Amino acid sequence: MNRQNRIIKRIIVILLVLGLSLGTGCYSQKQAGTSQEIDSRTDILTITGSGVEQETSFTISELKNLEDALVSACYSTVNNWPTKKFWVGKGIKVSYLLEKAGIKKGAQTVIVWAADGYNATFTRDQLEEKRYCFPNLKEDSEEGAVEVPAILAWEYWEGTDDLDKAASGNLRLLLGQAGLNDATAPVYVKDVVKIEVLTGAPGQWEAVQAKPVPGKVKPGTRIVLAHPEQDRVKIYYTIDGATPDEKSFPYNPSTSYFQPDLIKPITVDKPVLIKAVVVGFGKNNSQVATFAYDVE
């Protein structure tokens, strides 16, 4: 009988231990789930990083009450297909929010984060420089260009220039174009939950390379411009001696995995001076590369 009692007591102790372990496990899972839910909440925006004086958070309601910085505007954009479209948005200026968080003079890089971890990186200049909506974008005309600020919009719609069609949603970044060929669509981050401001230098894009190398070539030679991160940047070039920028012709209007046939070499039939620059979000423009070709 004593032996049976000892066995029963041992079984009870084992069951108690298992019960406590299982209870602790369930509690830990619940806590982890709650923490994840808080991290990915889309109704709160946080501005943080070494480039601001203090971490600052806003609820959507608080953002809507910052009446001095509210914006309703139309945005033109190009994506990496490349397809030209319009967006409308109602929201608040990003520059105003950065000022509220006390952006430092030495701040140089801004990262906009989505709830799922997707992000877009900008130099400070890229967010603060003049950018535009081009109403005649589809006609390749700058006529009627309107300056528009970068905003976090809580009402927006794609494929229209009618502000009345804007619909409520989680925060989305919208910004204007520096030129008609400026591909801004990939950085229209949706479900924005955090803006990270950093003081570290953003760096500079590597310069363009050309093949064959400059010099004498046969008539009809096709010059290929190349860059190690060609699908992350745009290569703009000129053949008239002018300095290239976002308003110049894009060598790679599409990425290599969408429409590679749109990336066409430059055919040389007479002496030509090719100038090219690399432009991309998150880093400063590359140095302008110059390639002179003469025809044999």
Draw up the topology in text.
Layout: H1 2-39, E1 44-48, E2 56-59, H2 60-64, E3 70-78, E4 84-93, H3 94-100, E5 109-114, E6 119-123, H4 124-128, E7 132-133, E8 146-147, E9 151-158, E10 167-174, E11 192-198, E12 209-211, E13 215-217, E14 221-226, E15 234-238, E16 249-250, E17 266-268, E18 272-279, E19 289-295
Parallel strand pairs: 1-11, 13-19
Antiparallel strand pairs: 1-2, 3-4, 4-9, 5-6, 5-11, 7-8, 9-10, 12-14, 14-17, 15-16, 15-18, 18-19
Shape: elongated
Low-confidence stretches: 1-39
What is the count of DSSP helices, taking H or I runs of 4+ residues? 4
Distance between the termini: 110 Å
Main-sheet strand order equals: 2-1-11-5-6
Q: Biggest sheet: strands, sense, closure?
A: 5 strands, mixed
Q: Into which percentage range does the β-strand content fall?
A: 25-35%
Structure summary, number of beta strands: 19
Amount of helix: 10-25%
- Main structural class: alpha+beta
What integer is the average pLDDT? 89
Based on CA atoms alone, the radius of gyration comes out at: 27 Å
